[in-house]
Amino acid sequence: MKFSRAIDLYIADMRAEGRINSPRSERSYRGALYHHCDDLSNRDPAYVGREDVKRTLRRWPHPNTQRKNRAVLVSFYDSAMEEGYRRDNPARQTRRPKAKPPRVYRLTRAEAAAFLAAAETVRERRIAHIGVCAGARNRELRGLQGRHFQRAGWVWISADIAKGTMTNHPVSSIASQAARTVSASRAAPAAMPRAR
Questions:
Q1: I need a labelling partner for 69 at 20 to 30 A (CA). Which of 52, 100, 121, 137 fits?
Q2: In the chain, how long is the greatest CA-to-CA distance?
Q3: Cα(69)–Cα(56) distance, rounded to whole angstroms?
């Protein structure tokens, strides 16, 4: 059996079992497996060894990415063992990369106030406040519709636009606090120049 066919069978099984539920998850799994398939020249998964897995994992320099993609390969080869295509799991024979804590940049209160104050139009102010005060991500901001604002004082981030599960974000109290912060900082020059 070719490796590409084994990928299709694996993804179909994962979907049927409810382990892969979104197109984004499938794309992520397929991405890692297609890289591995390229490294193997699409050969039968029964003839894959530990060194083949290690070669694929070296594609990704960051240990957290290696860790995530190793988990995909471990799951794939576990499934291959259960289906009778292999007797062992070469991905489990590799060392698990040590996770590094992600470096996340967070705006300071002054930067957030400057960002909110820099908004000039009504639309910019709405987007800035929802992004800063409710913590909405880029994709969530772009996917918002009127139905997401039906509950007064809340922004509903539905599953179709959210990363992860459905969530509700209260914005009334933090929005009023942000508005006070912004109005107090309007007298000072904006720390963030407007990009045109």
A1: 137
A2: 71
A3: 9
Specify if 191 maps to a domain. Answer: no
Q: Does pTM top 0.85 for this prediction? A: no
* Cα 14 → chain centroid: 19
Residue 96 lies in a domain: no
Q: Which residues pair with 168 in a beta bridge?
A: 156
pLDDT tens, residue by residue, 32-76: 999 999 999 999 999 999 999 999 999 999 999 999 999 999 999
Angle, to 10 degrees, between the axis of helix 3-16 and the axis of helix 63-82?
Answer: 90
67: its two tokens: 């860790």
* Cα distance between the two ends of the chain: 55
Query: For 167-191, what is each residue's pLDDT tens digit?
Result: 555 555 445 555 554 454 444 444 4
* CATH for 60: 1.10.150
Task: Say how far apart CA 59 and CA 67 lie, in whole Å.
Answer: 12
In a domain, 43, yes or no: yes
- Given a contact cutoff of 8 angstroms between Cβ atoms, the answer to whether 100 and 65 are in contact is no
Q: How does strand 167-170 pair with strand 154-157?
A: antiparallel
Q: Based on the domain organization, do 53 and 115 belong to the same domain?
A: no
